Amino acid sequence: MSSAAPRALRVGERALLVELACGEATEAFHAELLRRRAAGALPGVREIVPAARTVLLDGVADPERLAAELSGWEVGPLPARVGGAIGIPVRYDGPDLAEVAALWGVSVEAAVRIHTAAEFRVAFCGFAPGFGYLTGLDERYGVPRRATPRTAVPAGSVALAGPYTGVYPRSSPGGWQLIGATDAVLWDTGREPAALLTPGTRVRFTVEGAAAGGGR
Fold first, then answer.
1. Residues 167 and 197 sit within 8 Å (Cβ to Cβ)
2. What is the C-alpha to C-alpha distance for residues 156 and 142, in angstroms, rounded to an integer?
């Protein structure tokens, strides 16, 4: 993980946008912020919103002081994983699965094994309500977005782009590589929380029928 100090920028009167060097550093910094808030060390902070290489803090009582303190924080690696991961059963029959396998230089069956063997973590959310950007695959398995995005990707599509895996919570345009589909409900306003996947959540994908969990 990069040792570069975070860079904090003022956003309005009570918020800070903290820029980090890489995705791994951002995830670790987000975890540290949550730990400090739980310990009462970030009074007034209402929201902590991670993104790919930034974290937004809203409700900062003294932004200038906190910005100065951040550079001196000791932020270790991500904390040890405790508890179980959410299981999401997948039908690995996506239209781009064969292309992804070819990019990885493996068979379709091996590509499915690679994806189901990994444990993922929701790094951040965005794009659409309930859409999580999941890290966990080795960097050699990063894949490009499609040259021509689809005008409509079905809800429940399990997809890859760059270093991330994501699940489309609803039908929408998209340029990610589709490797499968799930019946898991990613966004449900009648549920608390509405999002199945929130930052920090651990996830495992399974072949549908081989393991339970994550479905409606």
1. yes
2. 21
> In this predicted structure, what is the pLDDT of residue 84?
75
Residue that is written with structure tokens 């929201």 in the block: 47
In the chain, pLDDT over 70 holds for what percent of residues?
A: 92
The answer to whether residue 110 scores a pLDDT higher than 90 is yes
The dihedral formed by the CA atoms of 177, 179, 182 and 187, expressed in degrees to the nearest 10 = -20
What is the three-class DSSP state of 1?
Answer: coil
Judge contact between 36 and 69, C-beta under 8 A.
no
If one counts every other C-beta atom within 10 angstroms of the C-beta of residue 75, the result is: 19
Question: What are the structure tokens assigned to 179, written together?
Answer: 């490797």
- Name every residue whose Cβ is closer than 8 Å to that of residue 38 and which is 6 or more positions away in sequence: none
pLDDT of residue 204 exceeding 90, the answer is yes
Mapping DSSP to helix (H, G, I), strand (E, B) and coil, where does residue 147 land? coil
* 0.85 exceeded by pTM: no
Question: Residue 34's pLDDT band (boundaries 50, 70, 90)?
Answer: confident
Q: Please name the helix (run of DSSP H) or strand (run of DSSP E) that holds residue 35, with its range, or none.
A: helix 23-38
The mean of the pLDDT values for the chain is 89
Q: What is the number of other CB atoms lying within 10 angstroms of the CB of residue 70?
A: 18
State whether residue 201 is helix, strand or coil.
coil
CA distance 106 to 20: 34
Question: Average pLDDT in the 168-197 region?
Answer: 95
CA distance 111 to 103: 10
Q: Which helix (H) or strand (E) holds 47?
A: strand 47-50
Helix (H) or strand (E) holding 37: helix 23-38
